[in-house]
């Protein structure tokens, strides 16, 4: 099972609004919980999500401990040309994942 | 574990309210025995009506249920898999009527909680002193885009036993070998939480014998489910490679369906099914909403000790329709609630304080003939809601004899509960 799920329409009309859906499998450990022996469970969250289109950042989100496990991020954008979306998730403990998807604008 | 609870100010107020209600009720009591109406003749309603008569033979008990034959959901997954006939699921109300209960074969159309009257579908009205609502569930045909009543004729839910059960069975029988069966599972709360997985198992049993190239895909709006380890073990042992499940965090939530093409759409994929079993989100049976007993969730908030509605006076709600905390929506829980609710009503009519119920629930899952496991729980009110007091689940590592014994116990359980309700 890939850790990232992406849903970008393969085709769209120029100037139309499209919905992009993403889901990243991640525990999102808050850092506020304790084990039975009283030790803090260290924070382990995704801290940032970025989407670039043909190299230009078009969407960014900062994530905090209150976000539930497996963050599902969905947003809308307008498409003007064919190209490539690149997605990047960065987090604690050196977490880094990327994914990409292409769209053809007609 | 015994817990002693000191009376709170609220209990005292509640006690006072019961006394006041008893005093108010007296003029009508003088004219005759208290009239208790029960709407819904499923496991909860039938058991409650009979328990009321058993506890106090003077009570006038009326059971309002439009169907002359009850079709039981437990074991209906075996009907889908061709292991059992639907007639084995069907029961009449003859024995209920023989207990001195007036059985009215009508639907309740309207309830006036202030006047304490029920208007039936033929227009007649009926007065009550106390009303028990046991309406079970209705499908929410507005919750999943593309899934309405017409779509359910193409993509059966089979989540109420009867014609839908047989429709799904016929579709499976007509399917070619190599077909994809998709089961769409909604988020909680739903009737009988482990049943989608029991169904996947029994469909796999049918397909393995008759159409072995076929596959089952479970698209799930939940990450975890009841007795998951037991199901996963059974699937690996009995049906290797036949059942795939996509959980919520893997993109399994169904967002829309298209009954014209048999397509099921999730946030991250489209699936075309040969047979689509779409189980939509649910809510309390419609009459609960008409009575004003359902809240914004579509379910009915209750006082866990008396099953009294928190929204309307003199109405109690039991079974799947009620918000009952940790108790799964099951036949066995509904029957236990029916008994406890009957006791609470009889106590209240006598001006006595209600006793704190202790409800037993058993939930058997049969994944192949002679292979079953179970979850048994005891539930008690904690604070303002039901919580698990004790839960026992079958061991994941167990010899086949244990599974076989549980399969026999499951049948015994079915005979016992249908006997309590209809026998």
The gist of it:
The complex is a heterodimer of chains A (106) and B (423). Chain A has 106 residues and is mostly beta strands.
| Uncertain parts of chain B | 1-30
CATH architecture of chain A: Sandwich
CATH H level, superfamily name of the largest domain in chain B:
FAD/NAD(P)-binding domain
Proportion in β-strands of chain A: over 45%
| Average pLDDT for all residues of chain B | 93
Overall tally of domains of chain B: 2
How many DSSP-defined strands of chain B? 24
Largest sheet of chain B: 5 strands, parallel
Description of the structure:
The complex is a heterodimer of chains A (106) and B (423). Chain A has 106 residues and is mainly beta. Chain A has a single domain, classed as Immunoglobulins (Immunoglobulin-like). Chain A is built from no helices and eight strands. In chain B, 32% of the residues lie in helices and 26% in strands. Chain B has eleven helices and 24 strands. Chain B has helices at 9-30, 43-55, 76-80, 94-98, 151-154, 163-174, 195-210, 228-238, 286-290, 331-349, 400-422, and strands at 35-39, 60-64, 69-71, 90-92, 102-104, 108-112, 117-120, 125-127, 130-133, 137-139, 180-185, 215-220, 243-246, 254-258, 263-266, 270-272, 275-278, 282-284, 300-301, 315-317, 322-323, 359-368, 371-382, 385-393. In chain B, 46% of the residues are buried.
Helices, strands, pairings?
The complex is a heterodimer of chains A (106) and B (423).
Chain A: E1 4-7, E2 11-12, E3 17-24, E4 46-53, E5 56-62, E6 72-78, E7 83-91, E8 95-105
Parallel strand pairs in A: 2-8
Antiparallel strand pairs in A: 1-3, 3-6, 4-5, 4-7, 7-8
Chain B: H1 9-30, E1 35-39, H2 43-55, E2 60-64, E3 69-71, H3 76-80, E4 90-92, H4 94-98, E5 102-104, E6 108-112, E7 117-120, E8 125-127, E9 130-133, E10 137-139, H5 151-154, H6 163-174, E11 180-185, H7 195-210, E12 215-220, H8 228-238, E13 243-246, E14 254-258, E15 263-266, E16 270-272, E17 275-278, E18 282-284, H9 286-290, E19 300-301, E20 315-317, E21 322-323, H10 331-349, E22 359-368, E23 371-382, E24 385-393, H11 400-422
Parallel strand pairs in B: 1-2, 1-9, 2-5, 9-20, 11-12, 11-17, 12-13, 19-21
Antiparallel strand pairs in B: 3-4, 6-7, 7-8, 10-18, 14-15, 15-16, 22-23, 23-24
Helix pairs in contact in B: 2-10, 2-11, 7-8
